[in-house]
Amino acid sequence: MVDTMPKSGTMTDVVLRAKECDIYYGSYKAVRDVSIDIPRNKITAFIGPSGCGKSTVLRCFNRLNDLIESFSLKGKMTYHGQDLYAPDVDPVEVRRRIGMVFQKPNPFPKTIYDNIAYGPRISGYKGDMDELVETSLRRAVLWDEVKDKLQESGFSLSGGQQQRLCIARTIAVQPEVVLMDEPCAALDPISTLKVEELMKELVQNYTIIIVTHNMQQATRVADYTAFYNAQVTEEAGGKVGYLAEFDSTEKIFNDPEQESTRDYVTGRFG
Amino acid sequence: MTAHSEASAHSFDAKSLKANRSSSRNLFNIVMTGLAGLCILLALIPLVLVLFYVFANGFNRLDLDLFTQLPPPPGGTGGGIANAIGGTVIVVAISTIISVPIGVLCAIWLSEFGGDDTSIDEYVRFGVNILAGVPSIIAGVFIYGIMVRPGRPGYSALAGGVALAVLMLPTIIRTADEALKIVPQEIRWAALGVGASKYQTVLKVVLPAAIPAILTGVTLAIARAAGETAPLIFTALFSPFRFNGITQPIATLAVLVYNFATLPFKAQQELAWAASLILVLMVLLTSIIARFATRQKTY
C-alpha cells in the first residue's frame, strides 16, 4: 500500500493531509483510499491517466466539490491538523486560504484592476488596494505588461496573460496553498514556460499542488510527484481512481517502485 | 500510393460539372425559394400597412399641443394627450419597479440556488411559462378582483401598474434565467475560489456579466406592457385630467385609443390616431434600445 509520506526526502511541515479518503459521486466511488501529505513550500504534482481522480482529489482540498450535489467524502482531510470537512468549518474560509487556478483562464468580466481587487475587497481588505494590486501583478510577473492598462477588461489580454492574471487574482487574497488544475492546458509553449517560472517563484511563499497531463512539466517544476491510476471495478462507473505512488519527482521518473508508474512515465500507456 | 490514386481516379466517370438549370432538382429549388420569398412579403404586408396607416392618420396631429394639452371636451377642437402620455409612463414605471426586482431575484434563485431540488425548478419554470400564456384580460380581472371591486380601494394607477407587472413577470424571469445560465460556470468557480460567498459571487460577478441580456428582456417586457389595453380598462380605468396621485384613476395611451377611436367626435378620433402613433413610436424606441443593449453582451 501507499505510504502517506513521499518515500525519499525529509519533510518537516505538512500543510494538507488526506487520510484514507474515498470520494463518491452518488453511489459511484470515483476515488478510493487516498492518503497523502502535501509538504509546505514545495510543488507537488499530480499525474496520471484521465479519469484517475487527480482533479477530484485536488478539488476536495478547497471544498470546491461541495458544489456538486451528489459528492461525498469518506475519510479525513486536514489543513494544519484541522478537519476540512468538520461541520463547523466554513467552506468560504477554506477557499480563502486554499486558492485555485483553473484549466481554462477565467478572468472576471471586469477590468484588470478589479479582477485582482475583487477577492481582497470581499474579504474586507483594509490596506492600500493599489499597492496590493501592484504586488500581486508583480508576483505573477504580469505587472510590466499591464501596468498601463489596468482599467481595460481582463478579456483584452492574451490567453497566457489571462492565466497569469488568474494566478495574480488567486494570490491577491494571500492564501497559503495554491491549487492548480492543469493551468497550462490551454496555453502555448512560451506562455507555459512563463507560468512554470512563475510557479517556481511563488513556491518560496506558497505551497503549490499542480495537476498536469504533461509529464515533462512535472519533471520541470515539481519537487514531489504523486502518480494516480485508475482500476477497473465491478461497481457502477466501471473504474475507480487510486493513488499508486507518491515520491520525489526524481524517484518517480527515474526509479519508481511500481510497475504501473514506470509504464506511465515511460509513455507505455495513458 | 501511386497505384492507389490511379485506381480511384479511374473509378469515376468524367461527367460534366456544368449546372443543368432544367433538372428537376434545380427547378424545385427555384420554385421553393420563390414560394418562401412570397410568404415573407405576405407576412410583412400587415406590418407595413399598420405603420403606414398609423403614420398617415396620426402625423398631422403631431404638434406641441399634443404633448402639453389635455383632451378637449366632447365637441371641442384641438387639445392633446399629455395626461395619457404621462399616465402610460407612470403606470409602466410602477409595473417595472414591481416586476424587475421580483423577476430578477426569482431568476437568480432558479439559475443559481434551485439546484438542491431540480424538480422544484421545473415546477417554477413550468408555472412561469403558463403565466406567460395567460391572456392579458385575465391578469386584469385578477387585479380587479383583488384591488378594485366594490369594497376594495378602487380604480387606481397602482392597480394598473400591478396588473401590468403580472404580465411583465414571466418575460423578465425567463430572459433573466436564460441570461444567467449563459454566464460560464468557470466564472462562478473562480469567484468561489478567491473566497466569495454564494451571494457575493452572484451579485458582484455573475449578475453584472448578465446585465445586458437582462436589460433586453426588461425592455421587451416594458414594450409589451406599454401597449396592453385590456388589463388597464378595469384597473387604471381612465381620467380626463392630469396625474393626480397613484391611488386615483389614470389615463393611458392604450385606453385612450380604445375610448376615443369609436367616439363620433373628430377631435377625439384624431387624438386616438395620434396616440396610436406615439404608442408605436414608444414601442419602436424600446425595441431599438433592447437591440443596443444586447450588443454590449459579455458572453
Please write out the topology.
The complex is a heterodimer of chains A (270) and B (299).
Chain A: E1 14-25, E2 28-39, E3 43-47, H1 54-61, E4 71-79, E5 82-83, H2 91-97, E6 98-101, H3 112-122, H4 129-139, H5 143-146, H6 159-172, E7 177-181, H7 189-202, E8 207-211, H8 215-221, E9 224-232, E10 239-248, H9 249-254, H10 259-265
Parallel strand pairs in A: 3-8, 3-9, 6-7, 7-8
Antiparallel strand pairs in A: 1-2, 1-4, 4-5, 9-10
Helix pairs in contact in A: 3-4, 3-6, 4-6, 6-7
Chain B: H1 2-10, H2 24-58, H3 64-68, H4 82-113, H5 118-133, H6 136-148, H7 157-182, H8 185-193, H9 198-226, H10 230-233, H11 253-261, H12 266-295
Helix pairs in contact in B: 2-12, 4-7, 4-9, 4-11, 5-7, 6-7, 7-9, 8-9, 9-12, 11-12
Average pLDDT over all residues of chain B: 88
| Tally of alpha and pi helices of chain B | 12
CATH H-level superfamily title of the largest domain in chain B = MetI-like
Strands of chain B, count: 0
The major β-sheet of chain B equals:
none
> Largest interface by residue count?
A-B, 27 and 22 residues
Describe the structure.
The complex is a heterodimer of chains A (270) and B (299). Chain A is of the alpha/beta class. Chain A is built from ten helices and ten strands. In chain A, strands 6-7-8-3-9-10 form a six-stranded mixed β-sheet, with helices on both faces. The radius of gyration of chain A is 19 Å and the shape is globular. Chain A starts with 13 loop residues before the first strand and ends in a 5-residue tail after the last helix. Chain B has 299 residues and is mainly alpha-helical. Chain B folds into two domains: 3-61; 64-294, Orthogonal Bundle (MetI-like fold). Chain B is built from twelve helices and no strands. Chain B is flat. Chain B starts with a helix and ends with a helix. The model of chain B has no long low-confidence stretch (mean pLDDT 88). Chains A and B meet through α2, β6, α3 and α6 of A and α8 and α9 of B.
